């Protein structure tokens, strides 16, 4: 038994420190206001304080910490993207993730499982090869494997998919991992709070004040505050916040749904994704199958669940892993994906001085949490985009310098 | 020890006249048909039914209402079977889940002693340092977690789903549900009444004095059964409410998707347990659970019981126990409520000790209950008294089963008078009725249900909606603080997740002092029962910890599903239509090697799989030198008709379409708003107001949809008909194609009458056909589009007509090589999610002079700035080295500069040829391309001009066959 638990057991838990300080009044001024207390916002606050000594920071969250997409995703971390920009960015994120439990002193259950993206057609095999070749070029461990390798790693898989186009092979990405999503937010939140950052939950931003072409303050339902910079890290609420400063974005919000089964003993040790069957699945450390699919077909600003989603997902799951037919779906939920036309995020400076955007996280936000926080913190501290996020800059849509991550970012988050 | 009573009244579910046999952990037991696994085991004196999730504490029956997550079983075919509601079957061989050994003597039971080392969230605080050890810990933790074990040999049982439509869906067939159903049916509405139990009756089965129930139930149930306007579906779980008034109902026969104009939520209440030390011992039952056992299965949960109550229902339960032959050692009352009920008086009369203002301090016993300690509410252990008993029956609170109401947009608030949450708002078409609303007595329930049904009926029929009547009870049925702390803890709040009072308090203390954060950190309510017996107590604990009211503390969100639903039932019948072309049989007869192209089955090549390369090369040669025939029925085939047809196509495609002459065709490229190529095809003009066009095989439906959407969005008078499945298509290609076609057609086919890139309508073999002079494979060619019914005849006629010319069918593999030799792209292979027509070298297909077309703005901006370029390359004749594959990368100075999009050994040119998408600025002038192939090997390819074959396109326009020689 770990020493830490022995100490806890013998001493009791009474003296355990709080993760987050009790709520308090807003101050009248902060150097930086971060809108959105999800993983990205809390990570940004942490890196601002830790790497740049900017500690007079407030994170404003309309609900509770990590209550948005941070707590609604299917916890997959991977870097097997298609574009050089994407691969470098997500690889940096994955590397931060690998040491994050130690950094934040919280067990994130970061579990390297290996990640199979199944190919059911020549077309898909071609795309897998493309991703593998680009990944290898940047030192990311990805390879095209044959169907036998899939069968060996995924017990009970039906390579014939019950009669649907069969599995021809897969892109195997060894570093693919899952992590306890909530804990990522809590770990960052605690570490930021320890460094003086204020976390304000149930605090909704209602307006953003500008003066002389730059941001000077934020109005909230708990009062107004002045600030030097505002960082919007609000995923599905991006259009609402961007509207406050008149900043058009090409973002469309689509619900993205997921569900879990009742817990069972471990049988699936890898992450399996099938684009053509629209399913991805892993087994949590609690034993539940965590399953998801592509975003809903229609734009909608809502976190309602639909029955069509579980029907379609179960239909394809049963094709892929026939024995899971007997398992029972316990709970389903939805998040709001802020999708961009090129399936890559929008990050960094904007035409409005002091207003920074971290949005367009679509279905790939969780895995980018550490690197998004780190690069956005550097961007805010220096006033210019960090090199790693320059390809994701806001102005790329006007310049047609888009990133083309669609091939690797859709299904299989 | 529990026992089977001799008589349980007329509402019993079991058939005492018959016996069935089953086994548990290898021991054989007998039961009656109608028993659940739990009732059968209890009747046989088996009390420890399972072990808890984390501490492996012994657990038993608790609710008998589908929340008994600690009494899960497995068989060879299934796991996580809920014993409290699953009927036992003859020959069933049951095992407990999540135990090593047996439930009674689980080898993991020692984990309970280490509980103090596993405080709330312990796994966040340990195992991560040193990092290298985590995988080992994780493996151990994963093995301990989870409940049952799945078998990878299980196979799905796929059954169709059904649809049902009704005016009113009533969920819950208790007194309120039945009353509401009758009220709605009497008003002439069609009613579907569903209940998850095998019989209708609800609480009338078990919770009321026998005479009351006997008086009310048969008459209600008989009237419901007799009413022609009511359909009853039992063993039917209303899974959830989904937008649009959809409620999937899970039954033993699969899922029924019910769409109802109005919904009555008569789902009743969920009983909530008190919290004290060892409140989880087998033998501690919710009073409603004990009553279900007694009346439905004739099983008394114990021989000597201590009862804790905070409402009239608890006194009634005590009386029921006594009637069944259970000795009631004492009834402790946590509140005044119900103390003046008839049942309470009857208990006093019977000499049962009643302790007012008393609480349950703790439960004694290790594996099972051996006693209970009762004491004054504000007292201490010194004031308490121990009672010997083998059962503790508790009735201290309720919570509305308002999940579906939540999902439909309803809200609840905390009613301080009832000390319970009640619905506070709901949509007009989804109404709560009965106990879920806080109506407790039968009279209240009936009146509330009548009012609810009348409001719903009025809303559905357009009549004036009556006011909401308040039929709530005016005394509490729940204790506000049913919690007694013990210095040595083990007061369980969540039995699914093994969470204690101290865990939740600790979570709040560590900053998780918001109900959602508390849930996520502690996992309260995240187990298989989804907090049905733990959420309310968690809210009470957090409210107390924060010094807030219940409403200020809030609640977590109810999400589907109400109870877990099997994946195979959700999946339903498998439906993956496979599309055959109209002459599929002929391809099979000709030994066509079939492959799946989306939903279609297509021919890759004809002949032996083993000699595929040779077959394909021969097919290519046939087309280049003689004549070949390919089935291209998978092409999208779309008709566009109407005065605005030209405008529709003009706005949808990049090229000019309005000025095409009747009888002419144009290459058609479709781009999205950002100028990226999404489809290509051919548009032919048949009349001023009539076009016929083709789309890529995988894109037919999407293109038809896009055209239809544009017609609507742009307000055009044009009709779009997708005829893809109705028409077949062939491509007769090769220098001899004209002469072969001439033998079966009486239409003039010479170059002057029917030039290249034209379309004509004629008849072949008696069928109306359209002929298109197409150029995809780079030879003289005629695409023949015809009704599916006529395709066999046309195919046969052409094969006969071409026999002496050596005609042969060719497949998709040969077609891909033929088009590559010609330098034609395949959208989606040679293009990607960013490729514009300029990148693909197709600026000739973009007419920016048009004032508008989809994507024009982007393309106008990008003209001349295209960052990439599709280029042709070739390897030397006789090249023997490794062949690059599609998506291998082009490398220059260590950087990625592009990728191979198409590659093939060209039979015509005798060398490997390919296309690559490369960065424009970097390698535009390079004469060589460096490609990295398998195993990281580099090869050099020569840049060449495309098309590789017949660069001037002379062969597609041949006037006569002489050119060929």
Descriptive notes:
The complex is a heterodimer of chains A (413) and B (965). Chain A contains 12 helices and 19 strands. With 413 residues, chain A is of the alpha+beta class. Chain A has a domain at 111-178 and 252-336: D-Amino Acid Oxidase, subunit A, domain 2 (D-Amino Acid Oxidase, Chain A, domain 2, 2-Layer Sandwich), CATH 3.30.9. The longest helix of chain A is centred in the first third of the chain and has 16 residues, at 122-137. Chain A is globular, with a radius of gyration of 21 Å. Chain A starts with a helix and ends with a helix. In chain B, the strands form 13 sheets. In chain B, strands 9, 10, 11, 12, 13, 14 and 28 form a 7-stranded mixed beta sheet that branches. In chain B, strands 41-42-43-40-34-44 form a 6-stranded mixed beta sheet. In chain B, helix 4 (175-186) runs parallel beside helix 10 (442-461). Chain B is of the alpha+beta class. The chains are: A alpha+beta (413), B alpha+beta (965). Chains A and B meet through helix 1, strand 4, helix 5, helix 7 and helix 9 of A and helix 2, helix 3, helix 11, helix 12 and strand 31 of B.
Quick summary of this structure?
The complex is a heterodimer of chains A (413) and B (965). With 413 residues, chain A is α+β, with helices and mostly antiparallel strands.
List the helices and strands and how they pair.
The complex is a heterodimer of chains A (413) and B (965).
Chain A: H1 3-11, E1 29-35, H2 39-52, E2 57-60, E3 76-77, H3 84-98, H4 100-104, E4 111-112, E5 115-119, H5 122-137, E6 142-146, H6 147-153, E7 169-173, E8 177-178, H7 181-194, E9 198-200, E10 205-211, E11 214-220, E12 223-232, H8 238-244, E13 252-261, E14 271-274, E15 279-283, E16 289-292, H9 307-320, E17 328-339, E18 346-349, E19 355-359, H10 369-382, H11 396-399, H12 406-409
Chain B: E1 3-4, E2 20-24, E3 27-31, H1 37-43, E4 50-51, E5 58-59, E6 72-74, E7 81-82, E8 93-96, H2 122-125, H3 134-144, E9 162-171, H4 175-186, E10 191-194, H5 210-226, E11 230-233, E12 237-238, E13 246-251, E14 254-265, E15 269-271, E16 284-286, H6 287-297, E17 299-300, E18 304-309, H7 312-323, E19 327-333, H8 342-349, E20 354-355, E21 358-364, E22 371-376, E23 385-388, E24 391-395, E25 398-400, H9 403-407, E26 411-415, E27 420-425, E28 430-432, H10 442-461, E29 492-494, E30 499-500, H11 501-509, H12 515-522, H13 535-546, H14 550-553, E31 565-566, H15 567-571, H16 584-589, E32 592-597, E33 600-606, H17 612-625, E34 628-631, E35 636-641, H18 645-652, E36 665-671, E37 677-687, E38 690-695, H19 700-713, E39 719-722, E40 727-733, H20 737-744, E41 759-764, E42 767-773, E43 781-787, H21 791-801, E44 808-809, H22 812-821, H23 856-862, E45 868-874, E46 889-892, E47 895-906, E48 911-919, H24 920-923, E49 928-932, E50 938-944
Parallel strand pairs in B: 2-8, 9-10, 9-14, 10-11, 14-28, 16-24, 18-19, 18-24, 19-20, 34-44
Antiparallel strand pairs in B: 1-17, 2-3, 4-5, 6-7, 6-8, 12-13, 13-14, 15-25, 21-22, 22-23, 26-27, 29-30, 32-33, 34-40, 35-38, 35-39, 36-37, 37-38, 40-43, 41-42, 42-43, 45-48, 45-50, 46-47, 46-49, 47-48, 49-50
Helix pairs in contact in B: 4-5, 4-10, 6-7, 7-8, 11-13, 17-22, 18-19
């Amino acid at each position: 038994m770990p020493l830490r638990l022995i100490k806890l057991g013998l001493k009791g838990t009474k003296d355990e420190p709080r993760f987050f300080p009790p709520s308090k009044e807003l101050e009248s001024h902060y150097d930086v206001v971060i809108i959105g207390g999800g993983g990205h916002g809390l990570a940004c606050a942490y890196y601002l304080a830790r790497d740049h000594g900017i500690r007079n920071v407030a994170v404003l969250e309309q609900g509770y910490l990590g209550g948005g997409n941070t707590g609604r995703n299917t916890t997959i971390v991977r870097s097997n993207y298609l574009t050089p920009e994407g691969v470098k960015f997500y690889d940096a994120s994955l590397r931060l993730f690998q040491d994050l439990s130690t950094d934040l002193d919280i067990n994130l259950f970061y579990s390297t499982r290996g990640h199979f993206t199944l190919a059911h057609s020549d077309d898909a095999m071609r795309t897998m090869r493309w991703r593998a070749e680009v990944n290898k070029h940047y030192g990311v461990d990805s390879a095209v494997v044959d169907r036998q390798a899939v069968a060996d790693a995924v017990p009970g898989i039906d390579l014939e998919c019950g009669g649907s186009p069969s599995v021809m092979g897969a892109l195997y990405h060894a570093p693919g991992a899952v992590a306890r999503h909530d804990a990522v937010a809590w770990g960052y939140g605690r570490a930021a709070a320890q460094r003086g950052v204020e976390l304000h939950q149930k605090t909704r931003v209602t307006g953003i004040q500008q003066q002389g072409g730059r941001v000077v303050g934020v109005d909230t339902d708990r009062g107004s505050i002045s600030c030097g910079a505002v960082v919007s890290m609000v995923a599905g609420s991006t259009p609402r916040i961007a509207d406050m400063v008149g900043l058009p974005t090409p973002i469309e919000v689509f619900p993205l749904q997921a569900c879990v089964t009742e817990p069972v003993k471990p049988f699936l040790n890898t992450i399996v994704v099938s684009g053509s069957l629209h399913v991805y699945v892993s087994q949590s450390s609690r034993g539940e199958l965590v399953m998801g699919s592509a975003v809903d077909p229609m734009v909608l600003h809502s976190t309602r669940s639909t029955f069509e989603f579980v029907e379609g997902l179960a239909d394809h799951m049963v094709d892929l892993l026939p024995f899971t037919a007997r398992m029972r779906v316990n709970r389903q939920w939805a998040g709001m994906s802020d999708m961009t036309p090129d399936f890559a995020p929008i990050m960094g400076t904007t035409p409005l001085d002091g207003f920074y955007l971290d949005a367009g996280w679509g279905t790939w936000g969780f895995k980018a949490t550490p690197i998004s926080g780190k690069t956005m913190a550097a961007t805010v501290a220096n006033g210019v985009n960090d090199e790693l996020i320059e390809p994701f800059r806001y102005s790329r849509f006007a310049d047609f310098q888009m990133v083309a991550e669609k091939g690797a970012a859709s299904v299989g988050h | 020890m529990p026992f089977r009573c001799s008589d349980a009244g007329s509402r019993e579910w079991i058939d005492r006249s018959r016996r069935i046999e089953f086994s548990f952990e290898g021991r054989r037991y007998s039961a009656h048909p109608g028993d659940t696994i739990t009732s059968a085991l209890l009747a046989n004196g088996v009390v420890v039914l399972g072990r808890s999730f984390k501490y492996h504490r012994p657990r038993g029956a608790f609710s008998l209402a589908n929340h008994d997550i600690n009494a899960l079983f497995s068989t060879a075919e299934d796991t996580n079977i809920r014993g409290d509601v699953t009927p036992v079957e003859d020959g069933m061989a049951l095992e407990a889940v999540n135990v090593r050994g047996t439930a009674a003597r689980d080898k993991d039971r020692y984990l309970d002693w280490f509980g103090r080392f596993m405080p709330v969230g312990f796994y966040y605080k340990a195992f991560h340092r040193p990092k290298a050890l985590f995988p080992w810990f994780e493996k151990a933790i994963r093995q301990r977690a989870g409940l049952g074990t799945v078998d990878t040999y299980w196979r799905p049982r796929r059954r169709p789903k059904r649809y049902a439509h009704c005016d009113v869906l009533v969920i819950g067939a208790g007194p309120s549900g039945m009353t509401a159903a009758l009220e709605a049916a009497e008003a002439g509405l069609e009613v579907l009444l569903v209940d998850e139990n095998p019989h209708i009756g609800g609480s009338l089965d078990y919770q009321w004095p026998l005479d009351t129930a006997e008086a009310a139930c048969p008459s209600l149930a008989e009237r419901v059964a007799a009413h022609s306007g009511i359909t009853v579906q039992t063993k039917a779980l209303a899974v959830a409410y989904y937008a649009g008034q959809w409620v999937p109902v899970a039954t033993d026969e699969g899922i029924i998707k019910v769409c109802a104009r109005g919904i009555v939520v008569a789902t009743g209440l969920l009983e909530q347990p008190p919290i004290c030390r060892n409140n989880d011992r087998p033998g501690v039952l919710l009073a409603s659970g004990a009553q279900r056992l007694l009346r439905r299965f004739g099983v008394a949960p114990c021989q000597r019981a201590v009862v804790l109550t905070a409402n009239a229902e608890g006194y009634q339960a005590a009386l029921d126990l006594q009637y069944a032959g259970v000795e009631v050692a004492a009834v402790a009352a946590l509140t005044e409520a119900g103390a003046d009920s008839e049942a309470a008086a009857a208990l006093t009369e019977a000499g049962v000790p009643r302790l007012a203002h008393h609480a349950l301090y703790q439960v004694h016993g290790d594996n099972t209950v051996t006693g209970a300690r009762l004491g004054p509410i504000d007292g201490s252990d010194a004031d308490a008294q121990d009672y010997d008993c083998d059962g503790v029956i508790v009735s201290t609170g309720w919570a509305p089963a308002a999940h579906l109401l939540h999902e439909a947009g309803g809200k609840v608030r905390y009613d301080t008078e009832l000390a319970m949450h009640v619905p506070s708002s709901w949509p007009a078409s989804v109404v709560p009725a009965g106990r879920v609303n806080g109506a407790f007595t039968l009279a209240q329930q009936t009146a509330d249900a009548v009012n609810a049904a009348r409001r719903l009926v009025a809303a559905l029929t357009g009549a004036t909606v009556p006011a909401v009547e308040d039929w709530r009870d005016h005394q509490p049925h729940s204790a506000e603080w049913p919690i007694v702390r013990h210095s040595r803890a083990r007061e369980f709040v969540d039995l699914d997740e093994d969470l204690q009072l101290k865990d939740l308090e600790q979570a709040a203390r560590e900053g998780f002092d918001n109900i959602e954060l508390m849930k996520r950190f502690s996992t309260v309510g995240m187990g298989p029962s989804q907090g049905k017996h733990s959420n309310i107590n968690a809210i009470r604990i957090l409210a107390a910890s924060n010094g807030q009211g219940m409403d200020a503390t809030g609640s977590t969100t109810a999400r589907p599903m109400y109870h877990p639903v099997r994946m195979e039932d959700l999946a339903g019948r498998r439906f993956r239509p496979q599309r055959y072309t109209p002459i599929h049989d002929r391809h099979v007869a000709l030994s066509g090697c079939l492959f799946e192209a989306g939903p279609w089955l297509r021919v890759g090549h004809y002949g032996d799989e083993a000699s595929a390369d040779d077959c394909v090369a021969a097919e290519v040669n046939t087309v280049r030198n003689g004549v070949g025939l390919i089935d291209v029925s998978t092409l999208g085939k779309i008709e566009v008709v109407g005065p605005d047809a030209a405008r529709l196509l003009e706005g949808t495609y990049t090229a000019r379409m309005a000025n095409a002459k009747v009888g002419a065709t144009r290459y058609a490229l479709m781009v999205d708003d950002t100028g990226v190529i999404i489809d290509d095809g051919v548009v032919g003009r048949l009349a001023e107001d009539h076009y016929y066009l083709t789309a890529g095989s995988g894109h037919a439906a999407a293109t038809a949809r896009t055209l239809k959407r544009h017609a609507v969005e742009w307000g055009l008078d044009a009709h779009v008909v997708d005829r893809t499945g109705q028409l077949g298509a062939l491509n007769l290609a090769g220098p001899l194609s004209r002469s072969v076609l001439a033998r079966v057609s009486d239409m003039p086919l010479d170059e002057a009458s029917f030039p290249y890139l034209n379309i004509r309508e004629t008849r072949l073999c008696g069928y109306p056909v359209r002929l298109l002079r197409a150029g995809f494979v780079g030879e003289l060619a005629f695409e023949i589009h015809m009704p599916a019914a006529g395709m066999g005849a046309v195919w046969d006629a052409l094969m006969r007509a071409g026999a002496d010319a050596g005609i042969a069918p060719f497949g998709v593999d040969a077609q891909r090589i033929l088009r590559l030799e010609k330098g034609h792209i395949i959208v989606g292979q040679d293009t990607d999610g960013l490729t514009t027509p300029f990148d693909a070298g197709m600026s000739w297909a973009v007419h920016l002079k048009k004032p508008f077309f989809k994507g024009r703005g982007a393309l106008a901006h990008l003209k001349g700035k295209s960052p990439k370029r599709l280029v042709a390359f070739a390897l030397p004749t006789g090249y023997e080295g490794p062949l690059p594959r599609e998506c291998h990368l082009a490398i220059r100075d260590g950087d990625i500069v592009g990728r191979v999009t198409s590659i093939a050994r060209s039979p015509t040119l005798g060398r490997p040829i390919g296309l690559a998408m490369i960065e424009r600025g970097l390698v535009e002038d390079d004469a060589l391309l460096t490609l990295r192939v398998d195993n990281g090997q580099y090869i050099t390819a020569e840049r060449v001009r495309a098309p590789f074959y017949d660069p001037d396109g002379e062969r597609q326009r041949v006037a006569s066959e002489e050119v060929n020689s």
